[in-house]
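step=encode ok
step=design start
structure_in=
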């Protein structure tokens, strides 16, 4: 306590502007860190929520690449006793043909059977 009154307080009083700016810099740095961390967590949560909305509550995905597969494959999967719900989804990446814009991901889902997978 004696060191604080003999050394620190006189220095703080002599350099009040420097002390205030230093404390303000520390407070601002902590506030920016907390803000960036909160924003990062919010973006990550929103991304996970978007993926869940698009993919649904899937546990297994059967794909056949660009060509897809016959409907008989879907029927055999739906008939399997270990599968509760099997819903077809068609994905296609198409060129938007708008200059300066990229490609579009088109998702086609069966809305009647898809209700059990999505909220």
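sequence_out=
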């Amino acid at each position: 306590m004696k060191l604080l009154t003999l050394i620190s307080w006189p220095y703080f009083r002599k350099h009040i502007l420097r002390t205030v700016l230093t404390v303000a810099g520390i407070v601002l740095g902590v506030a920016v860190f907390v803000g960036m961390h909160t924003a990062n967590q919010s973006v990550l949560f929103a991304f996970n929520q978007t993926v869940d909305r698009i993919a649904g509550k899937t546990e297994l995905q059967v794909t056949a690449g660009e060509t897809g597969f016959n409907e008989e494959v879907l029927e055999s999967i739906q008939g399997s006793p270990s599968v509760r719900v099997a819903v077809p989804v068609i994905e296609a990446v198409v060129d938007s043909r708008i200059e300066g814009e990229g490609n579009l991901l088109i998702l086609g889902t069966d809305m009647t059977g898809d209700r059990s997978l999505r909220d």
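step=design ok
step=annotate ok -> The longest strand covers residues 89-95.
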